[in-house]
Write a structure and sequence with these properties.
By secondary structure, the chain is of the alpha+beta class. The chain has a single domain, classed as Nuclear Transport Factor 2, Chain: A. The protein contains one helix and six strands, in the order ββαββββ. The mean pLDDT is about 95.
């Protein structure tokens, strides 16, 4: 990630690289303490060079996220759209889609 990366979550909240790292550490620590899991499985990814004369790539990655908690379990798709220049992530925009169970 670049030092000035801007991460925008599915709910519209934004974070810097440090905020992103600290949030993930806190979340993972709480999940572990409670015996819960949140797993991310890459489903697809592709990159497009929109303008070779300017550099940078648009990367799209789709993940299947699975949460298994004490009282509930669910899955959702997380679609991350990233803009990368010289190997560093400049922006990340996340969009989520719930998976509705027929059970």
């Amino acid at each position: 990630m670049s030092d000035t990366v801007k991460i925008t979550y599915h709910n519209g909240q934004s974070a810097t690289a440090d905020e992103f790292i600290n949030m993930n550490k806190r979340r993972d620590s709480m999940l572990e303490a409670d015996g819960e899991t949140l797993n991310w499985k890459l489903q697809s990814a592709y990159a497009v060079d929109l303008d070779p004369s300017r550099g940078g790539e648009l990367v799209d990655a789709m993940y299947l996220a699975s949460y298994d908690g004490k009282e509930e379990a669910y899955q959702f798709y997380a679609n991350l759209k990233m803009y990368i220049v010289n190997g560093k992530i400049i922006t990340v925009n996340q969009y989520n889609q719930s998976i509705v169970s027929d059970e």
